[in-house]
Amino acid sequence: MNRDSARIDESRALVAARLESLRAQFRAIVEGSRWSTDDDEHDPEGSTIAFERAAVLSLARDAEDELRELEAAAVRVSAGTYGTCERCGSPIADARLEALPAARRCIACVRMR
């Protein structure tokens, strides 16, 4: 396995673990609220159960998106295009790929948005 594939696989494992943790949190929030008769929408103390549920769900969706991007990066490794900016064709800096293994564009092209 080459370094790029290993980097992507390691990131996928971390994101998959985070996603499973978020899904477990979501299930716990739903299960906990099932037995509660509290009116959390009018509770003056802290955030509501609905807010917590929405926040965890949003983080889980972000993790799912990240997994899809990492899968696309793995396809680019197989195709031999990983590490090449899809906009300008220049190499993507290794430091950028280390920080964002699913990066599709070099820093110069990202700044041009």
Condensed summary:
The chain has 113 residues and is mainly alpha-helical. Helices cover 65% and strands 0% of the residues.
Topology:
Layout: H1 3-34, H2 49-79, H3 94-99, H4 107-111
Helix pairs in contact: 1-2
C-alpha end-to-end distance: 34 Å
Radius of gyration using CA atoms only? 19 Å
- Which word captures the global form? elongated
Q: How many H/I helices?
A: 4
Taking pLDDT < 50 over at least 5 consecutive residues as the criterion, the unreliable ranges are none
Percent helix range: 55-70%
Largest sheet: none
Q: How large a portion of the residues is in β-strands, by DSSP E?
A: under 5%
The number of E-state strands comes to 0
Structural class: mainly alpha
User: What is the chain-wise order of helices and strands?
Assistant: HHHH
Summed over residues and divided by their number, the pLDDT gives a mean of 90
